Structure formats: C-alpha cells, structure tokens
C-alpha cells in the first residue's frame, strides 16, 4: 500500500497549476518566489549574525604592553607646518594614514519586509535575482560598489538594522537642497507694494527673487558674500576631501568630482562663518601647493580622497 506521504509535495518542489476548459488545458508552474524569499531570509540571518558577532566585546587580554608606539605629528605654527612622523614599527603602507581615514565610509543596511535599502537609497526587492546576488556578496564580506556607493577596495563599515516586520518606508523629502541667502546685517530695504519683508527674502533656504518679480533689494553697504552650500549627487562619482582647519579641527567634505576648489572654500566658510572675514589659502599637504584656481574641479586638481590645509595669509 503506497505511503500517503508520497503524495505531498516537498517545500522545495515548485507548485504545479492547471488551467483550461473541459476539453483542453494547460499545465503551468507557479513562480519560484517562495524559494527566493527563503534564500533571502537565510542570507539575512547570516549577515545579522555576523554583524552581532563583530559588535560583541572582545575578551580582555591577559597582559598588555604599556609602551606607547605609533605615528604622530610635530608641533607646528602658522609659519611652520607640522610634520607627520610615521610609526617606525608599522609595516609599509601604500597610502598615508590621513588618506586611509578620509576614504573610510559608513553605510547603514536596513532589511525590510519586501527588500533591503542602503542609507536613504531605493528599495532592493528580494524577488529580484540581481539583488539576491548583492546580498550574497555582502554576506561573503564584499562591498558591491553599485549598492554601497563605494570604490573597489575602499574601506567601508556596514551597520545592519533589521525591520523585516515593517514595510519599506521611503525617506522623507529634503526641504531644501540648493543655495540661498543668509540673514545678515545691515538690514536691506525692500521696495514694492506687495513685497514681502526683508527677513522673508534673506532667510536661509529661500530663493532670490526672479527677474519677473517687481521686488528691488538695496543695501546701504556691501557685506561680505555669504557662503553657499552645494548638493552632492550620490548617483554620480563622488569622493571625500579631508580639511585641516587653521585651528586644528579636521572636517571631511563629501563632494562630486565636478565640484571645484571654490566649493571647498564655501564648505569651510559654512562650517566656520567667522573664517570668511579673514584671508586664507587652501593648499595640499605634501608636496605643499597653494590651490589658487578656485574654478578648477577637485578631480583636475588631484584632490580625490586627499587632504587639504587651511593657512592664514596674514
């Protein structure tokens, strides 16, 4: 007597459907979406487990050396540039420590009910075979450049968030992503019967009046130009430029290859508005070179993944 269990389909076998009338019919095979989803769940579990293992605290070492060793910098001033002192015990490297630090990026990988996303990017659905290959690469310890927006071999830290019980939520639209005018002094006078107040024209995030508008803005004196922000298109080639300010602060600026040296100055002035009132140069570290052509792109200036320094002129 045959076993009843033989009639049951195994979970891995595709389901067969039958469609048609009483004299003709067609046997079709159901889509294999269930198997693809099970495969995605397995990979998600592996990635989350690996992330948990990496974030677990390490066991304390039995004995540690109290002797300090490493690299550093000599004390410098406005006239004498500080010099980098490498670690004599460190193995030889192909790039400097500053360049390596500027290249490192952080990406947040979020698993949703129907797919996964990277940072504020679009949804990668689990039922897409191409996206399944991306998960396989991430699970194997590789960083897919097209998904994580990194260069081949670039250091990246992936932070994992599991929200598989929620549907994908697109990021909220940004309120403003262009340039504008900052509120400054002296207060401008506004002519026109229907003209808005001066503050509404010069508030951050507003556009200047168009040529069709009847609004005329006059200043009693010409204040210094306010720094302008710029927008980074993550779909285009981009890079990180580390900026060492004159006060010792370090900033990292994300830019497209088409942004200019002038955009680096705008970035500095936006981060430190008081710097706009004092003359300074932007120059490379080694060899030292003043970047005086502010219309030159960061790619043409050789500033991709580099370090620049702010130097006071007076």
UniProtKB/TrEMBL annotation:
A single GO molecular function, which one?
ubiquitin binding
Domain named UBX: which ranges?
234-311
Q: Where in the sequence does UniProt note compositional bias of the Acidic residues kind?
A: 1-15
Q: What is the lineage of its organism?
A: Eukaryota, Fungi, Dikarya, Basidiomycota, Agaricomycotina
One term under GO cellular component:
nucleus
Cite the PANTHER family for this sequence.
Answer: NSFL1 COFACTOR P47, UBX DOMAIN CONTAINING PROTEIN
- What residue spans carry the Low complexity bias annotation? 210-221
The segment(s) forming the SEP domain are 104-169
Protein name from the UniProt record: SEP-domain-containing protein
Give the start-end ranges of region Disordered: 1-100, 163-193, 203-222
The regions listed as transmembrane in this protein's record are: none
Q: What is the scientific name of the source organism? A: Calocera viscosa (strain TUFC12733)
Q: What GO biological process terms are annotated to this protein in UniProt? A: autophagosome assembly; Golgi organization; membrane fusion; nuclear membrane reassembly; proteasome-mediated ubiquitin-dependent protein catabolic process
Matching entries from Pfam families are given as: SEP, UBX
Basic and acidic residues: which segments have biased composition?
Answer: 34-52
